[in-house]
Amino acid sequence: MLSLVVLISGGGSNLRSLLEACQDAEYPARVVAIGADRDADGLDLGEEFGIPTFSVPFSSHASREAWGDEVLAQIRQWTPDLVVLSGFMRLLPPRVVAALSPQLLNTHPAYLPEFPGAHGVRDALAAGVPETGASLIVVDTGVDDGPIIAQERVPVLPGDTEASLHERIKTVERRLLVQTVLDIANGHVDLEEHSQI
Ligand code: GRF
């Protein structure tokens, strides 16, 4: 059974999909803790699914490194096999990435290396491209440039807003996330082969 810590900053709708998958006795992974860098709405999923949560507010630490060390300490309490950044909107310091990678995944709402960064959906819309996508990557010390584990194209439709496009992308992100965690648990994907650190 693969144990996961999932970090979020927002509503956690992708996390919810993973938690629902984990309710299936046949699914070989379990979320053991949910962490956030703020008072994220998605932390409520902990209570709903009976999973412990922790929050390490960025603002209450003197530096990014001090904040990152506390995030790492919290993660390590759970000795997870894998850490998933699912809408976690802060860059982890390099030493935290080095401590966890390649067992550290991030979901991104674009077809990387296209449109990295915090506004992948908005940037794709502004560029006027006919299709964008969703990607699941191993986190390394760059911004959204780690090894790509899974990705899929998503069309941009006439009249799309950032919200409508993001919602279409997120349905794909959820599927990629649930499938990739399954593939890792089953040994069909070996993250060590994707290690760059
Ligand atoms: C996802 O699109 C993720 O890739 C992005 O933030 C979104 C998270 O949404 N970085 P949610 O909190 O899972 O609803």
TrEMBL record:
Protein name per UniProt: Phosphoribosylglycinamide formyltransferase
Sorted UniProt keywords: Purine biosynthesis, Transferase
Keyword Magnesium belongs to the record: no
One family name in Pfam for this protein: Formyl_trans_N
Protein family membership: Belongs to the GART family.
Alphabetical GO biological process terms: 'de novo' IMP biosynthetic process
Annotated pathway: Purine metabolism; IMP biosynthesis via de novo pathway; N(2)-formyl-N(1)-(5-phospho-D-ribosyl)glycinamide from N(1)-(5-phospho-D-ribosyl)glycinamide (10-formyl THF route): step 1/1
Gene Ontology MF, one: phosphoribosylglycinamide formyltransferase activity
HAMAP family in UniProt: PurN
Chain positions recorded as (6R)-10-formyltetrahydrofolate binding sites: R64, M89, R90, L91, L92, N106
Residues annotated as domain Formyl transferase N-terminal: 4-181
Entry GO CC: cytosol
Function of the molecule: Catalyzes the transfer of a formyl group from 10-formyltetrahydrofolate to 5-phospho-ribosyl-glycinamide (GAR), producing 5-phospho-ribosyl-N-formylglycinamide (FGAR) and tetrahydrofolate.
UniProt xrefs under SUPFAM superfamilies: Formyltransferase
Binding residue positions for N(1)-(5-phospho-beta-D-ribosyl)glycinamide: G12, S13, N14
Source lineage: Bacteria, Bacillati, Actinomycetota, Actinomycetes, Micrococcales
Active site: H108 (proton donor)
Site (Raises pKa of active site His) residue list: D144
Reactions accelerated catalytically: N(1)-(5-phospho-beta-D-ribosyl)glycinamide + (6R)-10-formyltetrahydrofolate = N(2)-formyl-N(1)-(5-phospho-beta-D-ribosyl)glycinamide + (6S)-5,6,7,8-tetrahydrofolate + H(+)
InterPro entries linked: Formyl_transf_N (IPR002376), Formyl_transf_N_sf (IPR036477), GART (IPR004607)
Primary enzyme class: transferase
Protein biosynthesis keyword on record: no
